[in-house]
Amino acid sequence: MNTYLKWFSIVVWLGVPVNLYFAVPALFFPGYAIDTLNLEPGFHTVWLRNAGLLIFIITAYQILAAVMPSRYRAVAWMTVGGRLAAAIYWLVVTFDWLGTSSNPPGFLPFLIGDVAFGGVSGALLYFGLRAEATARQRQPTGAAA
User: Fold this and answer.
1) Residue 24 in domain
2) Measured in whole angstroms, how far is the alpha carbon of residue 13 from the centre of its chain?
3) What is the residue range of 12's domain?
4) Is 144 part of a structural domain of the chain?
5) Contact 117/14 with Cβ under 8 angstroms?
6) What's the structural domain count of the chain?
7) Which of 3, 26, 117, 128, by CA, is between 20 and 30 Å from 134?
8) What one-character-per-residue DSSP string does the chain give?
9) Above pLDDT 90, what percent of the chain?
10) Confidence band, pLDDT 50/70/90 cuts, at residue 125
11) Which backbone phi and psi does 11 adopt, to 5 degrees?
12) Is 113 part of a structural domain of the chain?
């Protein structure tokens, strides 16, 4: 694994505990998550728990991408795409462009996190896979992989 892909793995691994920091309270302690995020009283805990569960599932796939980005290229790119899609979502919510958010500033950390992890991991994955492809092209014909 080249340097870019090693750093891609590190960045994705750093995102795993960030995901779990939200997923564990959302799934198992929704009242705590509602209080911590200053969400409206009466926020439906079933939907918050569902979000926590989905983040657990997403995180499992991110671990695959972090362990072997070359082998699981599609999963690695979906990891980046998922982070960037989430960043767009949090951008809309944080700046309340649709007029539907009850506390836009409370979502700023999610926006910053997804932009940072998505942008950095995307660049590292791109350069890492490109470097790997270049190295493969330079191998003499008939050389073992």
Assistant:
1) yes
2) 10
3) 3-137
4) no
5) yes
6) 1
7) 117
8) --HHHHHHHHHHHHHHHHHHHHHHHHHH-HHHHHHHTTPPTT--HHHHHHHHHHHHHHHHHHHHHHH-TTTTHHHHHHHHHHHHHHHHHHHHHHTTTTS--S-GGGGHHHHHHHHHHHHHHHHHHHHHHHHHHHHHHHSPTT---
9) 54
10) very high
11) -65, -45
12) yes
- Residue 143 maps to a domain: no
What does the block give as tokens for 23?
């997923």
Q: Measure CA of the first residue to CA of the last residue in the chain; give whole Å.
A: 13
- Do residues 40 and 78 touch, judged by C-beta distance below 8 A? no
Which residues, in sequence order, are CB contacts of 30 under 8 Å at separation 6+? 45, 48, 49, 52
Q: How far is CA 92 from the centre of its chain?
A: 17
Q: Would you say 140 and 80 are in contact if contact means Cβ atoms under 8 Å apart?
A: no
Give the residue carrying structure tokens 């979000």. 51
